[in-house]
Every structure is written in C-alpha cells, then in structure tokens.
Amino acid sequence: MSEPQCTPKLYLGGSKNVAGSEAWSHFADFLRASPRVLCLVGAGLSAPSGLATWRGTNGLWNDIDLKELASPKKFQEDPVTVWNFYGERLLKSLAAQPNAAHHALAALARSHDEWLTINQNVDGLLEQTNHPTPSLLDIHGTLKNVCCTTCDYNINVNTPHDIPFLLLLSNADGQSRPAEISDLPHCPECTNLLRPGVVWFGEKLGAGAPDNIDDWISQEQIDLVIAAGTSLEVFPAAEWVNTARTLGASLAIIDVDHRFVDDLDDDDWFFEGDIAVILPRILSFL
Ligand SMILES: [Zn+2]
C-alpha cells in the first residue's frame, strides 16, 4: 500500500529508497548531540502560512522581473510601482501567522546554545515566534520595518493603520492602486520618501552579514547544516553551506520535492514533504 501524499519521507544520502522511522530517530540523536548547528531558511518555511511566492496571487505581478524591480535604481525611477509591489507583500505578511514549522524551528534553536538561523525571508513571521533573537539573522531585512531614504527615521509596522498608504492599497484593486508619489509613505521628520526595510539587489546584506556569518562559521567546527525550504543554488547562501560542509558539517535538506543533489554524502539527510509536518516531527523525536 502506498503512503498518503502528506506523509513526509526521509532519504539517506543519495539513496532513492525511503528510510524508516528509525532513521528519523537517528537524525534526532545526531541533532541532539550536535553543539553547533547552522540553519538556512527560505520561502518554503512560510509557504504553509500562505506566503508561497513573490508573485501576487491575482497574477498582477506575473510579468515582473524581480531583479529589476527589487533594486535602488527602480525605486529611484518608479517608486510608485515598487511601493505597490512591496505594499502588497507587506499587507499579506501582516495578515499571515507563523505556522508549525516556524514554531518548531524556534524550539530547536532554543534547545541549542550554539545555533545560528540565517533567515532569507522578509515576512517577519519567524520573529513572531520565541526564536532566540541573537541567533536569528534577517539577512534580507524585513518588510515590517519601513525606513527613511534620507535620515535615520524608521517605523515598525504592526497593522495597515500604521501607514496610510497601506490602507489606501488594501482598499484598491488592480486598476485603482495608488498612482501618485504623494500617495506613498513620507518621512514625518524630513519629508523625504520612506522605503521598505528590505535588502535590494546590489545592496549590502542585513544583520551584519556576511562578515558575522563568515566569522561564526570559521570559529569552530559546525556539526550540522540544515537547509529548510530554500534553494542551495543562490549566492551567498550556497557558499556558507559549502564552507561548513568542507569543514566537516553534515547536511540535512528539508524541501517539498526530493530532487537530485549531486554531492550528498552517505550520512546526509533529505526530508521530503510539508515542512510544517517535518520540523514538528523532528522535534517530537528529541
Ligand atoms: Zn527622514
């Protein structure tokens, strides 16, 4: 009898065979005995919260070139379009809640003295859990902080009411989205434009990265690298994972689809399935 679709699977190394539940237990033993863990998370972590992709669900943004739009140049040329894009993302993030994977990850981080989570998401959901703050690095910034393009002013956004532009946007449809620069959020202190607190292409990474991450990796042997809901092909994330592995760390990947990873070692792990099931299940074995 085949297993139901929702049952997560664990593959060991490059094996095509699904490992049994004892392998989950062995992984939990390894995780428990690993003092230093580096965890890289991406969009897949927030997918169960309904924040699956960068694209709008209504198709309005299907034709955009994200690399062009998410740039200081585009913001300078066309802040209205850029703000409409990020404003929609921010509204969705404000409406979303952390899922079971966020909470399980926070619990795993709390159970280790030397754990570092590199968060590539900008939705702020992991920050709403009790993940220890010092070990959580938002390298791409966060949508929920809006800052001035000129002075030091910034504001944490907790509801759409915090920024009138968001209320305007939340009441608009595709044809009537805010269209004037005067509609956009402006600094109450210096009157210049505010911008989303995310890191755009060509800008320096947030949270002190990459220097502090390079330092952390080189300080001492890392036992385990966990890549949860993220591509391992994107720079600089791929480089951190590779460096840690070169220095002897084992690798555990958690993703929706089991795909070919060309250099998995025999003692690496690939968890396939719903991350909101997998991370709590790992936690249950600890
Ligand atoms: Zn200002």
UniProtKB/TrEMBL annotation:
Q: Which residues form the Deacetylase sirtuin-type domain?
A: 17-286
Q: Which GO terms describe its cellular component?
A: nucleus
Annotated Zn(2+) binding sites: 148, 151, 187, 190
Q: Please give the start and end residues of each transmembrane region.
A: none
Q: Which UniProt keywords apply?
A: Metal-binding, NAD, Transferase, Zinc
Task: Please name the Pfam families in this protein's record.
Answer: SIR2
Report the domain of life of the source organism.
Eukaryota
Q: Matching InterPro entries, A to Z?
A: DHS-like_NAD/FAD-binding_dom, NAD-dep_sirtuin_deacylases, Sirtuin, Sirtuin_cat_small_dom_sf, Ssirtuin_cat_dom
Q: Cite the Gene3D superfamilies for this sequence.
A: SIR2/SIRT2 'Small Domain, TPP-binding domain
Q: Which GO terms describe its molecular function?
A: histone deacetylase activity, NAD-dependent; metal ion binding; NAD+ binding
Q: Where is the active site?
A: 140 (proton acceptor)
The family annotation for this protein states:
Belongs to the sirtuin family. Class I subfamily.
**Entries under PANTHER family matching the protein:** NAD-DEPENDENT PROTEIN DEACYLASE SIRTUIN-5, MITOCHONDRIAL-RELATED
Q: Mind telling me what this protein is named?
A: DHS-like NAD/FAD-binding domain-containing protein
